[in-house]
Amino acid sequence: MLEFSGPVWRILFLSQSDAPLAPARAPEGRFHHSGQNALYASLSAEGAGVALRRYVSPDDPPRVLQRAQVTGARLVDLRGQPDASIVWQDIHEERGVSPTWQFSNRARDMGADGMIYSSRSRPELSHIVLFSPSPTVIYADTQAVPWMPSDTQP
């Protein structure tokens, strides 16, 4: 386990900007299921755009980019492990479970605050997931700024 402190970025709908550190709204995701909490973020603004790319559609409402600071989070390091960064949605649809949940279940059992993992499409970029976004671990440190997907975005 490693201790992580530093900036992270999230892209949210403008309507969510009053609660920039709220956990994911979807009941299931890459590293959460069955009512578990998960707050997903990236170690760079570019990484946040890459992570969101799969979920963006032309008719989406406006989005904002929010920077936050993480302090002293104990993270399981999954960078460089391609099995943690797979396209999980198709497997979940077919089987009803995601193989990525084994990583987060294990990390939660170890008492980790979250995990750090590589981007699937850009392994040099990293993302984190926090299991309990407490104010002692993460806080928003800037005003959100408008964010628009671009054709030049990787």
Features:
single chain, 154 residues, alpha+beta, Phosphoenolpyruvate Carboxykinase, domain 3, seven-stranded mixed beta sheet, 31% strand, globular
SSE blueprint:
Layout: E1 2-13, E2 39-42, H1 45-52, E3 63-77, H2 88-95, H3 101-109, E4 114-118, E5 126-130, E6 138-140, E7 145-147
Parallel strand pairs: 3-4
Antiparallel strand pairs: 1-3, 2-5, 3-6, 3-7, 4-5
The count of β-strands is 7
Number of domains: 1
CATH architecture: Alpha-Beta Complex
What is the terminal separation in angstroms? Answer: 30 Å
CATH C-level class is Alpha Beta
Number of helices: 3
Short description:
This protein has 154 residues and is of the alpha+beta class. It has helices spanning 45-52, 88-95, 101-109, and strands at residues 2-13, 39-42, 63-77, 114-118, 126-130, 138-140, 145-147.
